[in-house]
Amino acid sequence: MLKLIGIKKTFNPGTVNEKRALVGVDLTLNEGDFVTVIGGNGAGKSTTLNAIAGVWPVDEGEIIIDGVNVTRLPEYKRAKYLGRVFQDPMTGTAASMQIEENLALASRRGLPRTLKSGINAAERERYKDKLKILDLGLEDRLTTKVGLLSGGQRQALTLLMATLKKPKLLLLDEHTAALDPKTAAKVLEATDKIIARDNLTAIMITHNMKDAIAHGNRLIMMHEGRIIYDVSGEEKSRLHVSDLLQKFEQVSGDEFANDRMMLA
């Protein structure tokens, strides 16, 4: 479903602020893979997601989504392949619009606009059914303005909107980092349910090592723009945080020193 071949990206080349963000990243995801990605600040996690999404062009390499080479496609043309949830809960929804209106926008993404009436009864029933998986009671609040929802509710709604039309690839960029632990756990539970139900292929960046181990079927660790550890299946399920710290030191030659991830 995804192939990254020799992806390289350097920001501000030839200046004092030059930063080699990605140094030949190779990655293959099969359909249904749910990959968690961890690493310290500047490891290249978000840069990799932005490369896939086409936020800016890569310097070298190829990006292939479901057999289509999208390396030279602009961001807006790649959008039809992707669902994306950002760290900021306020980013993915329109605050002044109702829940059902936000869902209607997501449902009609990529379709031609017409002058027919807004949201019909059948659509409302479908939205109610979809909202139930979040277990937040939003199915009974379809006409509530999204701006009145909590951050966790908005992020859960964003997740649902990103997956309403099954994307080839779901990108989750620390989508629970801004939430309190209880709400984050709720959103992660909904994430697991939606990915499993729709057999989605997903990449989830997280700063929480326990979450990286507990979720998905595969875990990747990045350091200085490279993938330094890739584990899946039974081996992943037996991991502990101490194992990840040991593996990081062993592969990178450095001590893991990211307080945010350690405290999580």
Q: What is the end-to-end distance?
A: 31 Å
Strand order of the largest sheet: 6-7-8-3-9-10
Summarize the main sheet: 6 strands, mixed
- CATH topology value: Rossmann fold
The portion of residues assigned to helices is 25-40%
Count up the domains: 1
The CATH class turns out to be Alpha Beta
Rg:
19 Å
Q: How many helices in DSSP terms? A: 10
Structural class by sheet pairing and helices:
alpha/beta
Uncertain runs: none
Average pLDDT works out at 90
Sheet-strand content, in percent, reads 15-25%
Order of helices and strands: EEEHEEHEHHHEHEHEEHHH
| CATH architecture designation | 3-Layer(aba) Sandwich
Could you name the CATH homologous superfamily? P-loop containing nucleotide triphosphate hydrolases
Query: Globular, elongated, flat, extended or rod-shaped: what is the shape?
Result: globular
Number of strands: 10
What would you say this structure looks like, in words?
The chain is of the alpha/beta class. It has one domain (2-93, 150-263): P-loop containing nucleotide triphosphate hydrolases (Rossmann fold). The protein is built from ten helices and ten strands. A six-stranded mixed sheet has the order 6-7-8-3-9-10, sandwiched between helices. A four-stranded antiparallel sheet has the order 2-1-4-5, with helices on one face. Helix 3 packs parallel to helix 5.
